[in-house]
Amino acid sequence: MHAKRKQMSNRTFTMIKPDAFANGYSGAILDMILKAGFRLTALKMTSLSAGKAGEFYAIHRARPFYNELVEFMSRGPIVAAILEKENAVADFRKLIGATDPAKADSGTIRKLFAASLGENAIHGSDSDENARTESDFFFSNLERI
Ligand code: CMP
Fold it and tell me: Which domain range does residue 120 map to?
């Protein structure tokens, strides 16, 4: 296995979503992530076609909100990143807060920057395996350190 891939248990994947990007929150969100002790090992600004957004969220294909999610995620630019820290997946999910910003703890990224369950500012992988899959979806080996 490639050495970089071995370290994925200390890594997670994140995406600043089109709502947060359009509101100009990307810099403040990245600042919070870095201040919480995460290191960037890959970073890019890009946008998703509807096809690519649908592929990324294929696991939710049968859910009633799938079409809305794909439409939203392909609406404008996003920032994708791979983050490194001990216990990265769990610690990052604590930092971003609950999926529904109304239920997110105060001080979390979603509480501060998200407006609704559908448009919730930021994504964080929910397992080491998904962190690996989602990182590989966005980044080649040449694009990560
Ligand atoms: P995320 O953590 O990126 O993973 C799946 C996304 O689907 C989630 O954030 C929300 O943006 C969205 N989502 C989850 N549940 C709902 C819902 N009930 N209605 C609309 N969107 C949802």
Answer: 2-143
